[in-house]
Design brief:
alpha+beta, Arc Repressor Mutant, subunit A, 4-stranded mixed beta sheet, 22 helices, 8 strands, about 50% helix
């Protein structure tokens, strides 16, 4: 077979991931906080971008021919959807502005609050940590310099739950002391508040608390020391048989143990609650649902009129300076366009979800329908990956509560008759069934399957077990209460 070279013409279409397209995709999947951080970073590096002052959003609606020509020069084909309408106010008093910020600040009365000052709710007192609480107690205690150093080393090796992470041997080697000295100091640290702190395992933590309650030789202490696995499995007959005590006494001792704190450091946890700000609000007005995008806190951007004037006139200086301003102006317009496109996409996706999940918005989780990304993608004529990005880390506030947009996309559970149910609806039914069961005779997974099948829901036992674990519900053997 002979080899030869040929030239062929072939016309093809392909999607090119331009930097502008990559930026739009990245902004679409960002959460509100990440978007604000992204915009603030761009404001620092792009001098053409400015924040819109309050009340300036509607100014400059009518454009002069020069302004229109300036925008067209940036890119006629690329930026047709972007309208940079803001203008600097000509009547701004620069002398007073500079005088105000260059002079000594005046004293503000206690009843006056500066406009730009953060609210008092944002000032939170520092929370005392477990290490600070124990260090304060140990410094107040009577101890030698060596004991004080060993004690601080022990406190520094506690985890967030208050348990000792290092071994006695490691601490002794680190401080170059004997094991007996470390053990002696450890006992003193364990007597500090909160009770049970500096324990090496759960059994020691509970025993310390029982000892502080004066129950060091009680049945509860023996159960913790020798039968903690049996307590976890609720094997009361074995505990009663081995310890030779009635079951009623075992039940009474278990009540005491259940009132103890297995994580002494919990009250000093430094985890602050994370408050979610919804991206979309849905309000019911009459029989219709109104969608309101939450733009509070999102920076409103505009292009600096000063740099636009520099491009249109001769103020830009050299060609290199004009090229720099031109590039920054292009980036600014693309950023504004991407943010607007992001908001429009979220709005359209929310609108489609409301159409599919109207019964949920009217009546609650029990009426949530199965929904996949393809359904919404076909409805709004977008790609599934775009819908996935638009619903990632986005939250919606509805009359039924606050939910993540991903919540509305759920797998179906078939019925014997009628339409399929969403898995979230089945999970709620399982929770309701378990909450109404007899604590002394809890329902098994198979019994829950039978109840659901009686309600026209076709579900397997392993699916019920999986949903039960996702809901944090223990098996029937651990839910049983004997008293």
């Amino acid at each position: 077979m002979a080899l030869e070279l040929k030239q062929n013409l072939k016309l093809t279409q392909q999607l090119v991931m331009t930097p502008q397209l990559q930026q739009a995709i990245r902004l679409l999947q960002l959460s509100r906080l990440d978007l604000v951080e992204e915009v603030n970073q761009e404001l620092e590096v792009n001098p053409v971008l400015e924040l819109t002052a309050p009340g300036d959003e509607n100014e400059g609606e009518a454009k002069t021919p020069d302004e229109q020509a300036d925008e067209a020069a940036v890119g006629r084909e690329e930026f047709t959807e972007i309208r940079v309408e803001e203008k600097l106010r000509d009547e701004f008093d620069w002398e007073n502005y500079l005088g105000e910020y260059s002079s000594t600040p005046s004293t503000t009365s206690m009843h006056e609050v500066p406009v730009d000052a953060p609210s008092f709710e944002n000032f939170v007192a520092g929370k005392t940590t477990l290490t600070d609480h124990l260090t304060w107690q140990w410094r107040m205690a009577e101890a030698t310099d060596k004991e004080r150093t060993i004690g601080l080393q022990i406190i520094g090796n506690l985890n967030a739950d208050g348990y000792l992470q290092s071994t006695i041997e490691e601490l002794a080697t680190l401080e170059n002391v004997s094991l007996a000295e470390v053990e002696r100091v450890l006992v003193r640290i364990q007597d500090l508040d909160p009770p049970g702190v500096a324990a090496r395992d759960l059994a020691e933590c509970l025993l310390i608390q029982l000892r502080n309650l004066g129950l060091g030789d009680s049945l509860a202490a023996r159960m913790v020391q020798d039968h903690l696995p049996d307590l976890e499995k609720k094997d009361y007959p074995r505990i009663s048989r081995v310890l030779k005590v009635p079951k009623e006494s075992v039940f009474d001792a278990e009540r005491v143990i259940l009132n103890l704190e297995p994580r002494p450091g919990r009250p000093f946890s430094g985890d602050d609650p994370q408050y979610i700000q919804p991206d979309v609000y849905v309000h019911k007005v009459g029989d219709e649902y109104v969608i309101v995008l939450n733009e509070d806190g999102l920076p409103k951007l505009k292009v600096s009129q000063q740099y636009k004037d520099m491009l249109s006139g001769n103020g830009a200086g050299s060609d290199q300076a004009r090229e720099y301003i031109h590039g920054k102006l292009r980036n600014a317009v693309w950023l504004i366009r991407s943010i607007h496109q992001r908001q429009r996409t979220i709005y359209r996706v929310t609108e489609s979800i409301i159409r599919f999940q109207r019964d949920f918005f009217d009546r609650g989780v029990e009426y949530l329908r199965p929904l996949v990304l393809r359904d919404v993608a076909e409805d709004v004529e977008m790609h599934e990956s775009t819908i996935s990005r638009a619903t990632t880390n986005k939250y919606i506030h509805t009359p039924q509560g606050l939910f993540e947009l991903k919540f509305f996309f759920d797998s179906p559970i078939q019925r014997f008759q009628g339409e399929a149910l969403a898995s979230e609806s089945v999970k709620k039914r399982i929770r309701q069934i378990v909450s109404a069961e007899d604590p002394k005779n809890p329902l098994s997974d198979q019994r829950i399957v039978e109840i659901l099948r009686g309600a026209n829901i076709d579900i397997a036992r392993r699916t019920v077990a999986k949903y039960r674990e996702m809901l944090g519900i223990a098996p029937s053997s651990r839910r049983r209460k004997h008293y």
